[in-house]
Amino acid sequence: MDAPPHVLILPFPAQGHVKPMLTLAELLCHAGLHVTFINTDHNHHNLRRSSSAPRPHRLRFASIPGVHRPNITDLFFSVMDNFKPKFRDLVVSMGGPPPTCIIADGIMAVGAVEVGEERGIPVICFRTQSACSTWTYLHLTKLIEDGEIPFSGETMDLPITSIPGLENLFRRRDLPSICRIGDLQNPIFQFFVTQTSAMTRASALILHTFQNLEAAIIAKLGAIFPTIYPIGPLHALLKAQITDHPSPSDSGSLIPQDRSCLTWLDSQPSRSVVYVSFGSLAKLTRGQFLEFLYGLVNSGKPFLWVVRSDLVLEEDRVDETPEELMVATRERGCLVDWAPQEEVLAHWAVGGFLTHSGWNSTVESILAGVPMICWPQIADQQVNSRCASELWRIGVDMKDTCDRSTVEKMVRDLMEDKREEIMKSTAEISRMARDSVEKGGSSHSALEKLIEDIKSMKFGGHVSVSDK
Ligand code: UDP
User: Which sequence ranges form a coiled-coil region, renumbered to this chain (predicted)?
Assistant: First the structure.
């Protein structure tokens, strides 16, 4: 009998990438495939510390040492410098028949595609973001050729016209944050140009989106990628397909979740709470932190805010929160280090999400039917917030401002003044997301096709690395 297919899954080593790729790993194992999930040592340790959920027996972990860096910019440099030879060594050291295929993060494509080509292993890229932002990153070179980037900081509202299908959507300020780098030779800008270009050499593309949300842009991507699997929202597919999963919501978390906030939510009125989280990487100055806190307090709404220990910039961490804010926060606020976000968003007391527009957070909010206030900082977040507010109409965008009166107004708009209008599209898109993961739904079918396609690939190497 042939050995079952064996897939190597290779995420970029950050929370927003590890989580959806680990969820995909679990789904593939559930379908009978063997998976080796390649982590950094650092993330492997954090995953074990944060989630006690037993892993599927077909899932193995392997790790690449020495890639981790505490700061995201340094992490990009480390991936550029260290990753490819270490990944090649790992694949060689695994011995046995070659893996059936590699599913590599779209921003790890350079090393993955080259090692795959050298060793004859098919590579599928998983860009853990929306079709709209994937399409936008694919146009970085065209944006330069057309003179749309670089630009100066004073003209951020000028429209961007050279991305086909998105001509009337973006202003300069809505492009990925790397487009704000004035120097096009900047290594981080070049990192994205090269990784995106290498991604087009993959045999197929996986996207964490669903067909009905982005059909037109997925169709355009079809001109570059012969096969595309839109399989989002992955956390909903996981719950739909593995109904006895012991702990679906923390299984990809690199930080321990504080569940006490769910009890606090139980004591709040229905749809009254603003949930606030800026994800795993965003940083605030002390001034920004205080403006957000004043805005939330002045809105009069109860709020649950994820204040990571490193949320406020280190040099700004002085404890001088005004007494009036402390009192108001104790009255109607709840602060936690890290929350069980999927469960928070699904809680009946939550009525709105003040988010940094990370793509996982956006997809989770869409599924839960919770409208958003978007305050993007880096990467694709600028694109996501624009799509949320202007394309899908499921939120309001306050990018590049965060004074207390704007925060207060945005909260009032979302929770009261514009709520009826925003909730119509939010409920409709949430229904489409839920339908997509049901049997016969587009994401469910795309995952089935991915599994069938992997099973029909030429190699059938069995897993041979040791279980960590
Ligand atoms: N998350 C969480 N608890 C929190 C905040 C975030 O579990 O308190 C999870 C969230 O559910 C999401 C991920 O962390 O899946 C953050 O990913 P996203 O793409 O939104 O942002 P990033 O961290 O990459 O900026």
Answer: none
